[in-house]
Amino acid sequence: MSITESVSVTMAAMTPVKRQARAERTRAALLTAAREVFEERGFLDAKISEICERAGVAYGSFYTHFADKDAVFAELIDAMLAGLLAVMRAEPLNGDGPTARIASANRAYLRAYRKNARLMAVFEQVATFSPAMRETYLRAWGVFYDRQERAIREWQRAGLVPDDVEPRTAAVALATMIGRTAYTWYVLGRPHDDGDVEQLTRLYCRAIGM
Amino acid sequence: MSITESVSVTMAAMTPVKRQARAERTRAALLTAAREVFEERGFLDAKISEICERAGVAYGSFYTHFADKDAVFAELIDAMLAGLLAVMRAEPLNGDGPTARIASANRAYLRAYRKNARLMAVFEQVATFSPAMRETYLRAWGVFYDRQERAIREWQRAGLVPDDVEPRTAAVALATMIGRTAYTWYVLGRPHDDGDVEQLTRLYCRAIGM
Amino acid sequence: MSITESVSVTMAAMTPVKRQARAERTRAALLTAAREVFEERGFLDAKISEICERAGVAYGSFYTHFADKDAVFAELIDAMLAGLLAVMRAEPLNGDGPTARIASANRAYLRAYRKNARLMAVFEQVATFSPAMRETYLRAWGVFYDRQERAIREWQRAGLVPDDVEPRTAAVALATMIGRTAYTWYVLGRPHDDGDVEQLTRLYCRAIGM
Amino acid sequence: MSITESVSVTMAAMTPVKRQARAERTRAALLTAAREVFEERGFLDAKISEICERAGVAYGSFYTHFADKDAVFAELIDAMLAGLLAVMRAEPLNGDGPTARIASANRAYLRAYRKNARLMAVFEQVATFSPAMRETYLRAWGVFYDRQERAIREWQRAGLVPDDVEPRTAAVALATMIGRTAYTWYVLGRPHDDGDVEQLTRLYCRAIGM
DNA sequence: GATGAATGAGTATTCATTCAT
DNA sequence: AATGAATGAATACTCATTCAT
């Protein structure tokens, strides 16, 4: 081992940049490992020790990067929700008419949900006992409701949806229908097929009188 | 009562009855206390010791009547679900036309849900980490789906609902909409009013083309 | 069911004799069941509840007949030891010469031990942590030592055993050899055959210079 | 020490050593305390909490070093048996003739046993109810038997012991005599003196016809 | 930043024994 | 005598978090 190599392993000799880079790597490894462990065991049975083992990081190092178990989890959820939101935003809101837009929005949502189903399951779990996570949960649904509500109001303005539809209530109910059906399919494992996605869209459209 | 019968009801035979009475009282007290504690603290933070204290019963007596914490909980849930089912069955399925029936069924469901909202919340919680309770959860929803499906099929036969509605998929989606909206309102506390109930029914009816 | 039969089941009507007889039956059933349970589970894992179940007797009735778990056990051990002693005493101390006598005594002891091996195992177990049972244990060995010692002294008086054999020490050592070999064979399950019994006797005789 | 070596021993590399040292101290303190507590109370009444108190260590630290109560105990027993074996092996097998060798081997064994008598007592206890410890127990005796058997065979080859002595049976019986007499003396507390040791050896030698 | 040993609060469950009928 | 419900003491083990190097 040359002196240079040896020195590179010591702290004093590390340049700030290298130090940061190393920390970033550790942090990333912990996040990846944490997601795996949470998905496999759920929040309650996830152990910090296992996260560290998988990340190939010392036990105590976890707390160098995260305040506590809740903090890693929150970060994973935030990232996931941001990704979900990005997918939804990427979906062109205009296009071949409202029905097609609803269809493609639903498909996009369901696809994104399925990709994150295992973490979603844990999100639902934690939201049942953690006030902080319940906040996040409500906020996420709020965003979802808002999008539907905005769309419905537009359609009403365009005369595509009758006025006796109360936009907010309908938005909440239909977002719930879509969102919870995703849970039912991908988390609880209820069988379903592509035709069901179409049905879902048809129910959605008819429900608001389209 | 003949002499023979009367004589046969001596000591040995009578005592069990008395015993049962006392035991039944203890058991009932534990169940009541358990429901309270579960509702206040959730499943995870519910302590057997607190249940016993509230029931005015010695710690060990809990285990005279229930195998463990899961067992009391399961019994409470079973009772609650049986009650819910009874309410749903009590609802007359005939009457002033399908729309009115749907309306009254939804009202009945929401009313019953609200009355049990706090225990429902815990039910949802436990279903996220207990395989046994997930089973119960799926079974309960299954019953709910079945009822909707049966109704939709009847309406199709009567020509009230178009044939392009796939009864099972629609049943699952709409039961989910109603059921999860109840959770959203009564467990998560989202504001709502009586008009929202009407809207819900309207969305339901329109969705299946009624 | 006739009145007479019915009455016979009640306490008030039972004659003292019948009552005693019944109690005796219950007690006997408990003893039999207790032996089974102790033998199957060892003392520590033996449960009063299981003893009562097997005896077909109510839980609380156990304490009508025995002060506690230790008491039943003590009674079983006492009975077993009395039986063992009886076997040993039945063995004719005279006969075809000392060697033959030693041989038949050993055979008798080993046979009796084997028949009680499972309870013996529990006896050894309890003697390691119960002061009272250790007393019994020491007393039982004392009796065994005494018999050997007496025999050795007789043989010395008859000139069959040299005087440099210290009767007590030899008695303790050889009784230990025989007694613990029985444990090794029948409790620990070390393989052995009939030839080994002969060997044991030969070792015994030679050890004391016979 | 060269510069290279010195540099390579920086932080990361040095720390583990220090850690180990502290951990080793804690571990040793726990082992010492555990032995004390087991000896005073027996296995069943030994409490982890008391072990930790005596070791001056936090409760949880016990589990940093041992999987459970059984694990510390097993380690203590293994160490004790290794020590015993070492003593026996240290005993020169050659010397002033077989009788003197037997005498000194017996003396060595009894001395070593006495030093460990209190832990031996607990070993015997645990062997009666723990399958794992019974394994260890049988293995330990097996080693003891083997040594005697080997010696007897040698003596037979040398013409010092008659051929009608079956080496294995005699080894088992005589090892049992010596080993269990040690238990009787040092654990059960039966009175004895130095003359008894000689007697024991004389019985041993005569038994195999020496 | 990394390491990993130390900390200690927290709790369900068992079961011998008692006791009211 | 029999019954069986009521009692409550007793304890090993987990694991998130801290902290000294």
Automatic annotation (TrEMBL), chains A, B, C, D:
Cited SUPFAM superfamilies: Homeodomain-like, Tetracyclin repressor-like, C-terminal domain
Keyword Transcription regulation on entry: yes
Pfam families membership: TetR_C_24 (PF17932), TetR_N (PF00440)
The organism's place on the tree of life at top rank: Bacteria
Ranges of the DNA-binding region feature: 47-66
Protein keywords: DNA-binding, Transcription, Transcription regulation
Keyword Transcription regulation tagged: yes
Domain HTH tetR-type: 24-84
PROSITE patterns: HTH_TETR_2
Protein name: HTH tetR-type domain-containing protein
Organism for this UniProt entry: Actinoallomurus liliacearum
